[in-house]
Amino acid sequence: MKITDVLRAEHAVFHNLFDHIEATVPRLKTLAEVKALAAVVDKVHAPHAKTEDDLFMEPLEHCFDQIGQQETFHDEHEMIDAELAKVHKAREVKAAKKILLGAVARSREHFDKEERIVFPMAEHILKAKTLSELGQAWLRRREVAEK
Ligand SMILES: [Fe+2]
Ligand SMILES: [Fe+2]
C-alpha cells in the first residue's frame, strides 16, 4: 500500500472522530470530559503529523515553496498541537469547548488541504516504488509497536 493511501485511511478515522466530537461536545457537562476528548485527538494526531513531517517536508520542500505552502504545512501541525494544548489550560467548561471545537475546525481545513494538495503532489513527485516502500515501512513500525 502506498504511504499516501495509509495517510488517507488515517484521515478517514479522523473525520469520524471529528464528527463524534462536534456532535457530543455541546452536551458535555464537565471540563474533564472536554479535556479527555482533546487528549484523544492529540494522541492520535501527533504520530500522524510526525509521519507526514518525516515523509513530505524534505522531498516536497521545493514544491511547497513554489505554491507558497512551505510554512503552512508544518506550521499547521504545530498550530493544531498548540490549540489542543490550550484546551488543557482552560478553567471553564464553556471556554474549553470553544477551543476544542475551534481546533477541530482548523484540523478539518488542514486535512482537506492535505487531501487536495499535499498527497496528490507527493504522488506526483515521489516514485510509485518509494511510496510503496514507505507504506511497508509504516506497517512494520506498527507491527513493532504492537509487540
Ligand atoms: Fe497533517
Ligand atoms: Fe494528515
Give an overview of the whole structure.
The protein is 86% helix and 0% strand. It has 6 helices and no strands. It starts with a helix and ends with a helix. It binds fe (ii) ion (2 copies). One fe (ii) ion binds next to helix 2 and helix 5.
Strand content: under 5%
Main sheet attributes: strand count, strand direction, barrel closure: none
The helix/strand series, from N terminus to C terminus, equals: HHHHHH
DSSP summary, beta strand count: 0
User: What class would the helix/strand composition place it in?
Assistant: mainly alpha
**Average residue pLDDT:** 91
Total helix count?
A: 6
Distance between the amino and carboxyl termini: 22 Å
List the helices and strands and how they pair.
Blueprint: H1 3-24, H2 31-56, H3 61-66, H4 70-89, H5 93-125, H6 128-146
Helix pairs in contact: 1-2, 1-5, 1-6, 2-4, 2-5, 4-5
Bound molecules: fe (ii) ion (2 copies).
Residues 49, 52, 77, 110, 114 line the site of one fe (ii) ion.
Briefly summarize what is shown.
With 147 residues, this protein is mostly helical.
